Amino acid sequence: MRPRSSLIAIAVFFAALGAAFALQRSVLQQFLDREDDPIITPPDANEKTEWVFARLRYPSFRGGMGGYWAMRGNWAIDYPKADRQFVQGVRRLTRIHARSVEKVVDLDTDEILDSPWVYVVEPGHWDLTDAQCAKLREYLLRGGFLMTDDFHGTFEWDVFMASMSRVFPDRPVVDLENSDPIFHVLYDLDERFQVPGIVMFQTGRIYEYDGIEARWRGIYDDRGRLMVAICHNMDLGDAWEWADHPLYPEKYASLAYRVGINYIIYAMTH
Amino acid sequence: MFQFLFKYPATVFSKGTLVFLSAWPVWILPALITAAAVLLAITVWRRPAGERSPIRGGRKAAIWGLQTALAALVLLLLWQPAISIATLKPQQNIIAVVVDDSQSMAIPEEGGTRLSIAQSALGSGILEKLGERFQVRLYRLGSRLERIDKLQDLNASMPSTRINDALKEVVAESASLPIGAVLLLSDGADNTAGIELEMIRNVRSHRLPIHTVGIGREQFSRDLEISDVQVAPRTLADSRLSAYVSFRQRGYTGGKATLKVLENGKTLASRQVTLKQDGVQQTEAIAFNAGIAGAKNLQFVVDTLVNEENGANNSLTRLVNVQSNRPRILYIEGEPRWEFKFIRRAMEEDRGLSLVSILRTTQNKIYRQGIDNPKELEDGFPSRVEDLFGYQAIILGGIEVSSFTSIQQELIRQFVDRRGGGLLFLAGRSGLADGGYGTSPLTDLLPVLLPDKKNTFHRDPATVELTPAGRDSLICRLEDDPAANADRWKKLPYLANFQEVGEPKAGAVVLAEFLPTSKGRFPLLVTQKYGMGRTAVFASAGSWRWQMQQPLADRTHEMFWQQLLRWLATETPGRVLSSSPQPMLYDNGHLELRARIYDTSYLAMADATVEARIIGPENTSAVVTLSPDPLQSGDYTAEWVAERPGSYLAEVLAKRGNEEIGRDVLMFRREDGVAEKFHAEQNRELLETLASETGGRYYTPRSLSNIADEIQYSEAGIATRETRDLWNMPALFLLALLLRASEWLLRRRWGAV
Q1: Please, which residues have CB within 8 angstroms of residue B94's CB and are 6 or more apart in sequence?
Q2: Which residue out of A140, A227, A268 would a mutagenesis test of the B interface target, given it has the greatest number of B Cβ atoms within 10 Å?
Q3: Residues A28-80: pLDDT tens digits?
Q4: Hey, which residues 48-77 in chain A have their CB within 8 Å of chain B?
Q5: Domain segments of chain A: what residues?
Q6: Is residue B592 predicted with pLDDT exceeding 90?
Q7: Secondary structure (3-state) at A111
Q8: What is the sign of the dihedral through the CA atoms of B167, B172, B175 and B176?
Q9: N or C terminus of chain B with fewer C-beta within 10 Å?
């Protein structure tokens, strides 16, 4: 190849690369490439409702295992099928005026303040900046509610706490008592068990890493109201997402729905 | 001069009766005057005038008129006119000299205090002159009438001025004593309700003239006086209260003054006010926090101004009973909503109210919060009167009216109308017009005329502004300064949604309006009185954004909901409601106690046993039984006298048999000597009226010199009727001379002499 042709080829290559990057940015705004299991947008997606499934988008942890998690957007795990399938249950089983589709919020704008209930998946992979920690703290103290799900074992707990301890340096994470209203606000959930993700199809185990036992934890405010409901060593999102799968056991999906609904109604009453 | 011309003082003519002493019949007098007039006319007009005579035409008439007047005067004198007048018999009558000895008489005037002016006026020969003809009795007037021996016994120390009562005593004494007249020296600053008509009638029936001497300035040149303070007598702990302080001032127009609320000397609130024109009543609002539960004596003070002549009238005390009970509000919500959550959170911070809620979470389940026991509201919204009437207010959230049975709807109506509870309607996709309220019996309770359409609830943003009424309302008070408050409302984050509620009804008050982006402004918060209670509508379910969109330290959302719900529930009566028409007792401890007793259905209860346990200053205690009021079933009354000044607390307890119906606390306070410091300018109008209505005369200290002569003309006491000749009055001779001289001068002028 002559030098001139080589230069043209290089220019075309970078132009194509730039176009691809630009295209990628525009679709990133819609999070289409983050959809685990794309699903058709329902016709009432734009309905204005009281409650919307708000999914928290966060920066992922890049340390430890050489940036493995950076290859995926952990915030978007199970997105959007889990959200929409869960919302169907919310609409059918409660009187909550719920939108059929989720919305994605982050801690960089004030949009999250219009959603006093937020779901975060795989927070064992999150890495919040100080500003995001401050924003989340303010959001929760004003009356917001955070539900965490799908993170497992000691290592992911430590990653979760690395950010959460900066959100609330002075508030302990405690195990929730069975008597806590969050387990009774609609369904009585005294008998809870570990809800596995679909990883059990491959491993045959219902737990991941060393997260053998499901932990129902939380952080309370000064008046004894839960602000953060931590579902550790379980994967409710998968249960919502694969509730329609013939191989996914009904008992797990059922508990996942009831837990999710209780957490929403608790957030809307406390 | 008057007495020189007419021989007698003016009092003689005003009180006496004209008589003729001649034995000839009086009717002859006008006949003769007529005859004289005719004869003179003939004489004047028959005399040949001649062409050169200067007296003709109108001039003849003038001459005739003057001659006729002179003839009439001469004839009148022939009939011996005289005046008949009742006169006190010397040395047989008493003159009651009553001197105001209240504290207001210590106010300095030009030439000394008011009292020293009165003492000087009497001591400069007046008492001696009176003593020459009458027996003089000296009295000091204050909260009572006391006889004294000498003027030096006066010291301006009595805590009040009760002119009416004092005069009653004098009249009573006149039944057994020959009191011929009363001489009252006072500034007229009476502390009672004024002079009773009955007392005036009584004085007139005794024909006892009351002569008054006005002491003191009729108007201060530099003074500010608080005339009234309006503040709620009951409230809940930590409530925000507004007091409306009315005052007048002279001499400080356009100046600044500091208005304060004090409790035990501690300033609860303070604000600067700009003083309006002289003599104009000005009312200023001041907001403060009622604080913890308990009986509060609050002082409302305007700091003494520079060179103010009377600084003692710049303060008034009011009693506020900050109740320790927590009214319970029943909130029913048709579906989980953020508004529900955030209202609950706002009320969790309110120690004065308790929010009990029913939330329909699913089609078949309800979730209850704030209940006292597991049975409470187990079956949902109450269907029995005794269950519902146990609450003080109700909030109907986004729930269709069809969710309530017709019995429940009627109970809600009676809850407001008869029980005196508060009812708040909230917006929602199942609320107000969209919930069918416009076509239900509950529409009467709404302060708005709901639009006759559906889809009135919009999940669109809208900003908020206060109306003029809202700027004055305590419900919407986020800032003490009215302008800052209105500005803060404008800057609030937008509401998440709103609902069209139509026009406000007559009598309803719109406190706030929402302004959607689609232009226009619509009622957001509307209140009204309904029956014994009150209702309101809040046409949004999106105020929760005020909490989420503002910094954690911002208290807008909590303050608004706490103030709105306190307004809704505070005035709802309990089963025992005690009151007194006059809880501030000035210089008189007479207290009227009232209590209204209800049964569990809030119907008047006539068979209760009601007693008040009173504790007061210096270990005062008493138990007073209240008797049923025969005119009003369910009302009980009693009277009691607070002997000592200070604050009192009465716990009113109602029972039926051994069952306690309920109890209520009433505060009252006796203050002595305080009223005396108000209205301290001379009340000349009262003194003049008193004198003129009783046949007396109003004097000033300077015009008092003739009192000894004038006071003798009275029909009270031991009096004789005297007849005094008038024919020899110099004025009559002068008149005759004047008539004759006038004729001569006229004739001379016309060239006839």
Answers
A1: B134, B135, B136, B137, B177, B178, B179, B180, B717
A2: A268
A3: 334 555 667 777 889 999 999 999 999 999 998 765 544 444 445 799 999 99
A4: 48-51
A5: 50-267
A6: yes
A7: helix
A8: negative
A9: N
Do the chains contact at B336 and A144, CB–CB below 8 Å? Answer: no
Q: What does the pLDDT look like over A77-136, one tens digit per residue?
A: 999 999 999 999 999 999 999 999 999 999 999 999 999 999 999 999 999 999 999 999
Residue A37 tokens read as 């299991």
Question: What residue of A is the nearest CA neighbor of B554?
Answer: A142
Check A95 against B362: CB less than 8 A apart: yes
What per-residue confidence (pLDDT) applies to B165? 87
Measured CA to CA, the distance from residue B571 to residue B573 in angstroms comes to 6
Contact across the interface for B360 and A95, Cβ inside 8 Å: yes
- Collapsing DSSP to helix, strand or coil, B329 comes out as strand
- Taking the Cβ of residue A260 and every Cβ of chain B, the question of whether any pair is shorter than 8 Å is answered with no
Res B17 pLDDT > 80: yes
Sort out which chain A residues have CB atoms less than 8 A from B342's CB and list them: 143
Taking the Cβ of residue A95 and every Cβ of chain B, the question of whether any pair is shorter than 8 Å is answered with yes
Domains of chain B (ranges; CATH) run 2-87+723-750 (no CATH), 90-217+681-717 (3.40.50.410), 223-323 (2.60.40.150), 328-569 (3.40.50.880), 576-675 (2.60.40.1930)
CA torsion angle for B469, B473, B475, B476 (degrees, to 10)?
A: 70
Q: Give the Cα separation of B541 and A137 in Å (integer).
A: 25
Burial group, residue A88, by CB count within 10 angstroms (0-12, 13-18, 19+): middle
The secondary structure element, H or E, covering residue B424 is strand B422-426
Residue A46 contacts B, CB cutoff 8 Å: no
> How far, in Å, CA of B261 to CA of B452, rounded?
48
Classify domain A50-267 at the CATH topology level: Rossmann fold (3.40.50)
Residue B198 clears pLDDT 90, i.e. is over it: no
Nearest Cα to Cα of residue B3 among B675, B731, B700, B743:
B731
ipTM of the complex: 0.88
> Where do the H-state alpha helices sit in B574-661?
none
Q: Measured between alpha carbons, how far is B634 from B611 in angstroms, rounded to an integer?
A: 14
CA distance A141 to chain B (A): 7
pTM: 0.78
What letters, b where the CB count within 10 A reaches 16 and e where it falls short, cover B170-196? bbebbeeebbbbbbbbbbbbbbbeebe
Cβ-defined contact of A113 to B544 (cutoff 8 Å): no
